[in-house]
UniProtKB/TrEMBL annotation:
<keyword id="KW-0812">Transmembrane</keyword>
<feature type="transmembrane region" description="Helical">
    <location>
        <begin position="36"/>
        <end position="53"/>
    </location>
</feature>
<protein>
    <recommendedName>
        <fullName>Transmembrane signal peptide protein</fullName>
    </recommendedName>
</protein>
<feature type="transmembrane region" description="Helical">
    <location>
        <begin position="12"/>
        <end position="30"/>
    </location>
</feature>
<dbReference type="Pfam" id="PF04342">
    <property type="entry name" value="DMT_6"/>
</dbReference>
<keyword id="KW-0472">Membrane</keyword>
<keyword id="KW-1133">Transmembrane helix</keyword>
<feature type="transmembrane region" description="Helical">
    <location>
        <begin position="74"/>
        <end position="92"/>
    </location>
</feature>
<dbReference type="InterPro" id="IPR007437">
    <property type="entry name" value="DUF486"/>
</dbReference>
<feature type="transmembrane region" description="Helical">
    <location>
        <begin position="98"/>
        <end position="115"/>
    </location>
</feature>
Length: 118
């Protein structure tokens, strides 16, 4: 029995998992390592980013079978905002702002323009 997921779903799931690692690599040190030298945070972030790349590269290789590179990039940006907002609000305790909504609406427009000719 073949339980292979459709290419779009594989791509989005891998990009989402990749973005969780990316977000922790880029911003997690602000909460956890604020009292450490920057190079400690950089080294730890690079270690976390390795897992990001181990998911991002397959996501793009799978995704390019169905999407253009531009479409992959805009999917990535939507996923990034979708992962970042909960991370900022729940993990970093940043206030939820309407600016996230406006940014999301701009991305909806970007998705429209990247996919309209498909």
């Amino acid at each position: 029995m073949n339980l292979s997921l459709p290419i779009p779903l594989q791509t989005i799931l891998l990009l989402t998992a990749s973005n969780v690692f990316m977000t922790f690599a880029w911003y997690g040190h602000l909460k956890n390592l604020a009292d450490r030298p920057w190079y400690v945070a950089a080294l730890l972030s690079w270690g976390i980013a390795l897992f990001e790349y181990m998911l991002m590269v397959p996501a793009n290789r799978i995704g390019v079978q169905q999407f253009s590179v531009g479409q992959l990039k805009i999917i990535q940006e939507v996923v990034t905002l979708s992962v970042f907002v909960p991370f900022a609000v729940f993990y970093l305790r940043e206030p939820l702002k309407l600016d996230y909504l406006w940014a999301g609406l701009c991305l909806v427009a970007a998705v429209y323009f990247m996919f309209r000719s498909s």
